[in-house]
Specification:
about 270 residues; 10 strands; five-stranded antiparallel β-sheet; 2 domains; about 30% helix; alpha+beta
Length: about 270
């Protein structure tokens, strides 16, 4: 009888292990969601107390302490992120669990700026109107796991601009969290006359990133598009791109001179 009870316990343990979606050596979904919830709160704390975290090493030290408090090393966390980046269905489950943890605990992630400072992230706007969010993809979050030494490209295009006007301004906005992962961002507009107008920037900044394109006041672009390219010189680097938005606003004469900083190219017939 005692032997049968032990066998039942063993079988139950095997069944529970089989239910997990992560392989051996990868942080399971439940622990991963707990780590991510605490890291999100930690990131908000860093943003609100920037003077206490003046450089990458101090910010990284806080993140490392959060991960270690859960009983894992940063190497465990980084290697697990690589696995989750290649198994997006499981990763989405982890994200859902993370949100549930924050909601159940009553924790709210505060705005990413100190009190009294200007909000850096975009509000939510409809896809039509004088101020519109034209991000065409339903997915607004990317997990980037670059190959060392190479750039990997994520291409996008504004497909939903139903009310374009001359002189419109397009601004790509997103929040970026990274560990030694650099981004190269390009935003461009093609015109019917064969001219392409574009802006590029490189960043590895943790926080809100903006890149704006001022279109011509005498012509409407036929296409607005761009890419986010990511790469790293580090052996393991993971980046999160969140809250992706392409904000289109109408012509503002006070900002129009910004067009002089853009680059131009002419396609050969």
């Amino acid at each position: 009888m005692k032997g049968n009870a032990s066998l039942i316990v063993l079988l139950m343990c095997l069944l529970m292990a089989a239910c997990g979606k992560t392989p051996r050596g990868i942080i399971d979904e439940d622990d991963m969601s707990g780590i991510m919830a605490d890291l999100l709160l930690g990131d908000s704390y860093i943003n609100l107390n920037g003077a206490d975290f003046p450089n990458d090493s101090t910010r990284q030290a806080l993140k490392q302490s959060i991960v270690e408090r859960h009983g894992y090393t940063m190497r465990d966390y980084d290697s697990s992120l690589v696995w989750y980046a290649h198994n997006m269905e499981v990763y989405k489950d982890v994200l859902d669990r993370t949100v549930e943890r924050l909601e159940k605990s009553g924790s709210n992630i505060p705005d990413d700026v100190p009190q009294g400072a200007q909000q850096q992230g975009p509000k939510r706007y409809p896809t039509v109107g004088d101020t519109a969010d034209l991000w065409a993809d339903a997915e607004r979050t990317l997990v980037v796991a670059p190959t060392r030494g190479d750039l990997t490209y994520f291409n996008f295009e504004t497909l939903d601009d139903k009310q374009p006007e001359t002189g419109d301004r397009y601004e790509l906005i997103f929040k970026y969290l990274t560990q030694n992962c650099r981004l190269v961002v390009m935003l461009a507009a093609d015109y019917p006359n064969g001219t392409t107008q574009y802006m590029t920037r490189t960043t590895n900044y943790n926080g809100w990133t903006h890149i704006a394109l001022q279109t011509d006041s005498t012509d409407k672009p036929r296409r607005v598009y761009g890419y986010i390219a990511y790469g790293s010189d580090a052996p393991v680097s993971i980046g999160y791109i969140d809250s992706l938005c392409i904000l289109r606003t109408r012509l503002n004469r006070e900002q129009y001179n910004y067009i002089n900083t853009h680059r131009r190219a002419v396609r050969q017939p």
